Amino acid sequence: MIAPRRFLPSMSSLLAFEAVERLGSATTAAEELSLTHSAVSRQLKVLEGQLGVPLFRRERHGMAVTPAGQDYAQAVRDSLRGLSRASLKLRANPSGGSLNLAILPAFGMHWLAPRLRAFAGDHPEITVNLSTRLAPFEFDREPFDAAIHFGQRDWHGVNYLELSRERVVPVCAPGLLPGPATPEALLDLPLLHLESRPSGWEEWFAAQDTRADGLRGMLFDQFATMAEAAALGFGVALLPDYMARAEIARNRLVRAAEADTEAAGRYYLVWPQGTPRPALQVLVKWLEIQVSVDPGHDLDAAAGR
């Protein structure tokens, strides 16, 4: 239920208030909004009168926002952003059915994107928008309907659909090693690490029955930048097999060791608990079918290998 109209200020008042609070000056806000100073001041008085709460302290050198006004300004700003996003989604897909997905870059492009092309053919009424997020977030504070998550089922307050496993491969620049090395030999080389998987190398060495404690090295936030650093000779990278094979085929990287291992985590589609929007329900059911016809649901199958 929408609140009574007396609690819903006009858009002009809210825009004026948000701009003054953010910019710290009615004069600057007036310039941004292409209004006169008196028009902005009038909107602020109307807003305070409607709310019955002072939002500013009038001081000798201007106005200062009250603590309550600061909290209200943040709520107004969030609402304006939400309205702006809703308007953009409507313009992008006038027929409705738009979804916003937060993706992990490498997996999103190699596993999800090819499938979304098929999904678009089956459901042209639904537009799927993709943005990158590298870590879990609060759905009620971000403009996303669902997200791709790698790891364990440790994202609280969400539903899970397992999408894929992952195998990882140690790779390096062609000139760094004369050929695939033993796990013990890799301990003497610089190892490149992914920020979101700080124990990735320890898990790989453990799978090779090789003790490796306190490993250090360069940190990267994405596989793509880590692969580029490996190609430039900065060290040995542990990459998903689909990326490693593509780079090896291009002669930019070679295997640093023969063994590859299955990563400890899984890729999941996650979305907030509760009843999802109809468009999201369609996507979830469609992905469930895709995963069910590929029991291994691994990336090799996705890439046609």
TrEMBL record:
It comes from the Bacteria. Keywords: DNA-binding, Transcription, Transcription regulation. Coiled coil: none annotated. Residues 9-66 form the HTH lysR-type domain. PANTHER family: GLYCINE CLEAVAGE SYSTEM TRANSCRIPTIONAL ACTIVATOR, HTH-TYPE TRANSCRIPTIONAL REGULATOR. Belongs to the LysR transcriptional regulatory family. This is LysR family transcriptional regulator. It comes from Psychromarinibacter halotolerans. The lineage of its organism: Bacteria, Pseudomonadati, Pseudomonadota, Alphaproteobacteria, Rhodobacterales.
